[in-house]
TrEMBL record:
Keyword Ribosomal protein: no
Keywords annotated in UniProt: Disulfide bond, Glycoprotein, Signal
Signal peptide from the UniProt entry: none
Organism domain of life: Eukaryota
Residue ranges annotated for the SMB domain, each copy included: 10-61
Protein name according to UniProt: SMB domain-containing protein
InterPro entries per UniProt: SBSPO, Somatomedin_B-like_dom_sf, Somatomedin_B_dom, TSP1_rpt, TSP1_rpt_sf, TSP1_spondin_dom
Amino acid sequence: MRLSSGGCQDKGLCCSGRDPSCVSKGWRPDRTYGTCYCDQACTSTLDCCHDYQHACPAEHCVVSEWSQWSGCTEACKAAVRMRSREVLQKPRNGGKPCPPVQEFAGCAEYWVRHRQCRKSLVPALITTGGYGNARKKRDISINSDIMGYCVEFQLTSLTAGCLRGLQPHTQWMQYLREGHKVCVECQPPALAAGHQHCSGRWRE
């Protein structure tokens, strides 16, 4: 038996959601002939026309690459920066939905118009805005010794390696638990050259 009569392709039908008007007449996948549908919901109600998958293939959302990070929204205080991406193709026929198109992260800038911030309290952020709770440090004079600072983190996930610290300098990691808060100190030797903040690696 050839399943070629009627269907979605012959009528040029492909509809999103549940659309009772998106109807045709032809063979169904269960080899019964009669009324069949060409809407996205037919895959759940099992009343698709036999050629629905071929005539209406799933098209996943497609987005562009991330833009460059913007600058901090405000200088000399805890602020946020943003990056974005565009939707190049919207999902159709049950394709994967679009991921977030905006992302925010915490930041702190210590320079204004090529000069150092001169406020008595300057926040120090070294993590994303959603997870970092900045503590304040003293204002640093150009002529004084640079001081370290501390940032509080909450552990949201742990890799297996974090729980198997066998070396003397990693044994403390065995006490880490999800949900715990830890204080990470940025000591002067770790400060980036010419800047008042630490640099490091992290995984988004």
